[in-house]
Write a structure and sequence with these properties.
7 strands, 7-stranded mixed sheet, Rossmann fold, about 220 residues, alpha/beta
Length: about 220
Amino acid sequence: MTLKLLDLFAGAGGAGEGYRRAGFAIHGVDIIPHPDYPGTYTVGDWGAALADLADWADVIHASPPCPRYSRATPAHRRDAHPDLVEPVREALQAVGKPYVIENVPGSPLIDPAIYCGSSFGLRVRRHRLFESNIPLTAPACDHKAQGQVVGVYGAHADRPGGWKRPDGRSRGVKATSVADAGDALGITHMTNWPDLADSIPPAYTAHIGHQIISQL
């Protein structure tokens, strides 16, 4: 039997693609259309979609917006962003099905598993936290085994010679194209930079998905 997963705040499907690789049928929900999403898709509010589709799903994944918790957001700007982790957790617990909540380091997740791209042979680190009501284990980081690590962030890819800070220092090495960013993240289905910059590597949720299937 194929298990069904509802993917809230789905974006273009970094998380969803991992669950699909693990064997789930996936349905994504986001307020912004993402034609590249690798499953069926609803454009709409997460709460309304949860009410409509909770009975359909066997498992629910949610990736609430992260800017409020991200270290990249200046402290004085964090209150301008929604604080959705707790409301999402309460809604998922009320549904009573297996769930996973994903967010960035610094977010208020409870006893999360920490995933890193170095654990999967990727060219990014992109540490992310995963809370679940099913026990999860993550492979340890292996930064020493990585070669050159690249960034996939901001509004665009790198340029020859890289982008410099105003004082002339390097901002670090970024991927040089959409194709290079996709290769670094282990993503093949996305076609634009902003989606890749917002996505987690599917290897993370494939690993989680296999654990959930084995426990269900």
